[in-house]
């Protein structure tokens, strides 16, 4: 979730924050949230169903089944909890797409700043051992 926040901040700083970029990051953000939320009670299952609107039922179940806690403070998600979430999700209309559109291109413009140094005057030090380079 922290890395997603960094990415969102970077988009905001570069004025690239469009609704399209936010929509694209939403499933990733929800998946990160799903990994961090408590997954024990009926209320937890209800909250998961209400919050994970950009993820399909298959994706949510896959994340819950694949989740492996890294320490002794957390327990594995029980199969009964996964079935409970799946039953609640069966009542909703699923997200039409399982994966992100990999063919979608985001336009990014990088400013060009020419070097104030003439490249033909630059000398490569011999300590770099790049004798195979030739000046054109």
From TrEMBL:
<protein>
    <submittedName>
        <fullName>MYO5C protein</fullName>
    </submittedName>
</protein>
<dbReference type="GO" id="GO:0051020">
    <property type="term" value="F:GTPase binding"/>
</dbReference>
<dbReference type="InterPro" id="IPR052072">
    <property type="entry name" value="Vascular_dev_regulator"/>
</dbReference>
<dbReference type="InterPro" id="IPR002710">
    <property type="entry name" value="Dilute_dom"/>
</dbReference>
<feature type="domain" description="Dilute">
    <location>
        <begin position="1"/>
        <end position="91"/>
    </location>
</feature>
<dbReference type="Pfam" id="PF01843">
    <property type="entry name" value="DIL"/>
</dbReference>
